[in-house]
Amino acid sequence: MTLQPLLQEMQSLGALLAGRAMLHNSSHREGMVHVDKAQRVQDRDREGVWVGGALAPNTSSPFPPEPPGASGSIIPVYCALLATVVLGLLAYVAFKCWRSHKQRQQLAKARTAELGAHPEPGCRLYLHLPRQQQEEVERLLEASGQPDEGWQGLAGCLGYQADAVEIMARGQGPASALLRDWAVKEGSGATLRVLEDALASLGRDDVVRVLGAPAEGCSVV
């Protein structure tokens, strides 16, 4: 939401109120000049009139005396009104910003939940593959005649040292041990995309095709 229209509205309202205050002051000054002239006439009349040979004050003036403090009494009212309007507009802007922020958060959460329920193929985890598909990958890696293109080469691409590779080679199913250990250590980073890139660097496109093959019964946890 842009604040420019609201700021323009606040400026227009402030200018209107200021103009009204200036107009009132001008009218008040003109009235004061008129009252001042009348007051001088009234003062001359109040110097006295002769009633029955005696000097008595004149009370026939049509201008009542102005109460003290009347001048400028409307300016604080305008100032208070302007402050109230400005505070109201600021509260409205703050509320709209807060509501917009909450809506963006809700949309982001919904988008995250949608991606979690339907992840992209390359973002799926190796452990989420069906067991049958995992076994086919492991079989192809262990059947390689050249260690550099089999599970040993894959271990090097995944960051395993030689001593760790030797320990896995002593057990049964070294390819399965390697891939499961890698999936547990990497967690959410053990995606099919990372595994496919490592296999592609070894020239094992056949294993990459197995990883990318659609499998029925695949579920995402």
UniProtKB/TrEMBL annotation:
Its main location: membrane. Coiled coil: none annotated. Residues 151-215 form the Death domain. SMART domains: DEATH (SM00005). InterPro entries: DEATH-like_dom_sf, Death_dom, Neurotrophin_rcpt-DD, TNFR16_TM. GO terms for molecular function: coreceptor activity; death receptor activity; nerve growth factor binding. GO terms for cellular component: cell surface; plasma membrane. Pfam families: Death, TNFR_16_TM. The keyword Transmembrane helix applies. GO terms for biological process: apoptotic process; Rho protein signal transduction. The chain crosses the membrane at residues 74-95. Keywords: Apoptosis, Cell membrane, Glycoprotein, Membrane, Transmembrane, Transmembrane helix. It is found in: Cell membrane. It is a single-pass membrane protein. This is Death domain-containing membrane protein NRADD-like isoform X2. The gene is LOC110577584.
